[in-house]
Design goal:
Strand content: 15-25%
CATH topology of the largest domain: Chitinase A, domain 3
Number of strands: 7
Order of helices and strands: HHHHHEEEEHEHEE
CATH class of the largest domain: Alpha Beta
Number of helices: 7
Helix content: 25-40%
Oligomer: single chain
Radius of gyration: 21 Å
């Protein structure tokens, strides 16, 4: 469950409407179909921002002008500085409903027997495990199953039948905190608010901005941290 950089997300926006010209087209050649697929994949990342049609056209026009080496219609240096603020505001607004639903889910989870930490992480320990508990610096091997609050699966090593191994301090904060609560062989359900996961940016297209994440995790082993190079 590694974080996705906001800079990568914003950088991808340049390409997301490559196939969304003002006149609709149907891809026919293999190259057009490949590029159309690129457009749909990257366009998914922005579907939750609820962009107006005119705003989508503006992105498309900027892409077209740049790709065709036309003179830009606005001063790029002036407006580049405003990109982060624009996307942060839009992501925050779009994620508000998702965040509110997640807060309600987490509150019910706690009311039904879960525990909530000071950070906002909610959890239920199914099996405490035995022996050593991991630290932030530990490498852990786990089996996990991750869903949105509506049950939609976005990632599952359990379904793949393949355990995952990673340094505990290089994943989302909800995992770093939650996995330290159990020992080897332990099982825990984590309900992770967005501020301990992917925030208002989300991890599109699978995880929308503001999403609360639900994980069922089994700690299989704790391994030595890799030596620093």
């Amino acid at each position: 469950m590694k974080k996705i950089s906001l800079l990568v997300l914003l950088g991808s926006s340049v390409f997301m409407t490559a196939c969304n010209e003002q006149k609709s087209m149907t891809p026919s050649t293999e190259d057009e179909k490949i590029l159309y697929t690129v457009g749909t994949m990257l366009g998914d990342r922005f579907s939750h921002l609820e962009l107006k049609e005119s705003e989508v056209r503006a992105i498309s026009q900027g892409l077209q002008d740049s790709a065709m080496k036309k003179t830009p219609q606005v001063n790029a240096e002036e407006y580049q500085a405003k990109i982060s603020e624009f996307f942060n505001e839009r992501m925050s607004k779009a994620s508000e409903k998702v965040r509110t639903a997640g807060d309600a889910y987490r509150a019910k989870f706690v009311k039904d027997g879960g525990t909530q930490t000071e950070s906002g992480l909610a959890y239920k320990i199914t099996e405490a495990g035995s022996g050593q508990k991991p630290s932030e610096e530990s490498n852990v091997k786990v089996s996990y199953h991750g869903t949105l609050i509506d049950g939609t699966v976005f990632d599952s090593s359990r379904d793949r039948g393949d355990d995952a191994e990673f340094p505990l301090n290089r994943v989302i904060r909800g995992w770093t905190e939650g996995l330290q609560l159990i020992g080897v062989g332990g099982k825990i359900t984590l309900v992770i608010p967005p501020e301990l996961a992917y925030g208002d940016a989300g991890a599109p297209p699978a995880i929308p901005g503001g999403a609360t994440l639900v994980f069922e995790v089994e700690l299989k082993s704790i391994n030595e941290a890799p030596a620093e190079e």
